[in-house]
TrEMBL record:
It comes from the Bacteria. It comes from Candidatus Liptonbacteria bacterium CG11_big_fil_rev_8_21_14_0_20_35_14. This is DsrE family protein.
Length: 62
């Protein structure tokens, strides 16, 4: 199955969950594309938080 995910938020929890879902889908042999729109395009400027290791999830997705 091919999955497209649109990320329109710069909220750390939303970003973390988007990439967690994408990674889980890739491990299940699905094709996954994450589209960054609006505030989601700020992904590179969002720092990790105590609860959400965004940089780790992004690196794992690649």
């Amino acid at each position: 199955m091919k999955i497209g995910i649109i990320l329109q938020s710069n909220n750390p929890e939303h970003i973390w969950n988007t990439f967690r879902f994408g990674i889980t889908s890739l491990k299940a042999n699905h094709g996954v594309t994450i589209f960054l729109m609006s505030e989601g395009a700020e992904l590179d400027t969002i720092a990790d938080t105590e609860h959400f290791d965004i940089s780790k999830k992004v690196a794992e997705y690649k």
